[in-house]
Design a protein that fits this description.
Layout: E1 8-11, H1 17-27, E2 31-36, E3 51-52, E4 55-56, H2 57-60, E5 66-70, H3 76-86, E6 91-94, H4 100-103, H5 108-114, E7 119-124, H6 139-145, H7 166-189, E8 193-198, H8 199-205, H9 208-217, E9 234-238, E10 243-247, H10 251-260, H11 265-268, H12 275-280, H13 282-293, H14 298-307, E11 312-314, H15 318-322, H16 325-329, E12 333-337, E13 343-347, H17 371-379, H18 383-391
Helix pairs in contact: 1-7, 7-8
Length: 395
């Protein structure tokens, strides 16, 4: 049994934030129907190379455990079918521009009059209200506007974006969390609700301690490269053959580090005795440590730090990370078969639950792969009706 088994989700979202949200819910057992344009489908289907069969790797990354239904929402009959499907859904997720679903007659206000238990989640760049509500929202723009880029990158450099579309991913997680909270609320009250999740809101919230530092102090955060604004030493260091990460989170760990690397006197030095003092004298301490770390290899320092339980890590590339024995032991890389028999590796679900562990039950679907069976199962359509709908350009 899976945690969300029995819940039906009608997913009108495309690209990343929405599909990531519904994939999380699908991994947890929800039935997710991915509604796509009959010709183009989700835009990310075409965002290759690389490809596996006819699917882009990008599309594969966020669309497992779903079924694909093609539906032309610009066609009156298509909108009628969508309306009928919505009446049977527990949750709708969409990421159209503000007001576009209302133009289709598929907005929350319209649907909830007929289905008061419906949970409806809209994901946009800037939310349903506010001066920027009608702007298109893209991850790169949100990273810039949220302040994230201003704190990312080397100190003496231009602002940098994070290497993955992190604002989309965070938004998808917030949306999935809100939907599950709404399902719990509905179980208690019998009422559905509307959920408004925005990329900008989500990324601002994800600034966490950096935002808090500014709100408390009034001091503008700056880029520190790989260093930490509140903890020292907590950054990359150069060994004789490469770089590694040291993450000393408290004074006891700092004392252990100093003992391990042969300079115990640094731990009692009045400039470095406590973390606030180390932050104050960051440059002096980092210079001292950098000189020491340059004398041995990455592997030697990692082994020494691990022996003394000092948090550290190699700076892996993606191949090294995905082939790490611990990553493999955790089942984070799994091989599945697409419905045409093509074998493909993909990243598996992250959370591990003792009773309702999420799994990859079905591969990402080809465009419209399940249209026929969904219309039969959900609406009871016969073969003749479905064939005619295809002929009419509805599917």
């Amino acid at each position: 049994m899976t945690a969300l088994e029995g819940f039906k989700i009608l997913d009108f979202s495309r690209v990343l934030a929405g599909p990531f949200c519904t994939m999380v819910l699908a991994d947890l057992g929800a039935e997710v129907i991915k509604v796509e344009h009959p010709v183009l489908g989700d835009e990310t289907r075409h965002w290759g190379p690389p490809w596996a069969s006819d699917m882009s790797a990008y599309y594969l990354s966020v669309n497992r455990n779903k079924r694909s239904l093609t539906l032309n929402l610009k066609h009156k009959r298509g909108r009628e079918i969508a309306f009928a499907l919505a009446q049977q859904a527990d949750v709708i997720v969409e990421n159209f521009k503000v007001g576009q679903m209302a133009g289709f007659g598929l907005d929350y206000a319209t649907l909830s009059r007929h289905h008061p238990k419906l949970i409806y989640c809209s994901i946009t760049g800037y939310g349903q209200q506010g001066p920027y509500a009608n702007r298109a929202g893209y991850d790169f723009a949100i990273q810039a506007q949220s302040g994230l880029m201003s704190i990312t990158g080397p100190t003496e450099s231009e602002p940098h974006k994070v290497g993955v579309a992190i604002s989309d991913v965070i938004t998808g997680l917030f949306a999935a969390n809100a939907i599950q909270a709404a399902l719990i609320h509905r179980a208690k009250t019998g009422r559905g609700q509307y959920i408004d999740v925005a990329l900008l809101d989500s990324q601002i919230a994800a600034l966490v301690n950096v935002a808090s530092n500014y709100l408390v102090s009034g001091a503008l955060p700056t880029r520190l490269g790989n260093a930490h604004p509140n903890i020292v030493p907590y950054q990359t260091f150069k060994a004789s053959d490469g770089e590694f990460v040291l993450a000393v989170g408290n004074d006891l760990q700092f004392a252990a580090l100093c003992d391990a690397i042969g300079v115990p006197e640094l731990a009692s030095d009045e400039r470095f005795r406590t973390n606030p003092l180390r932050v104050q004298h960051r440059e002096m301490l980092v210079q001292e440590l950098s000189t020491i770390f340059s004398t041995r290899t990455v592997d030697e320092w990692l082994k020494l730090c691990e022996q003394h339980r000092i948090p550290c890590a190699p700076v892996n590339d993606v191949a090294q990370a995905l082939n790490d024995p611990h990553v493999l032991a955790r089942g984070l890389v799994q091989e599945i078969l697409l419905s045409d028999g093509t074998a493909v590796k993909m990243v598996g679900p992250a959370p591990k639950l003792s009773e309702t562990n999420p799994t990859i039950r079905t591969p990402p679907p080809f465009l419209g792969e399940h249209t026929h069976e969904i219309l039969q199962e959900w609406l009871g359509y016969d073969d003749v009706t479905i064939t005619q709908l295809r002929s009419d350009g509805v599917l």
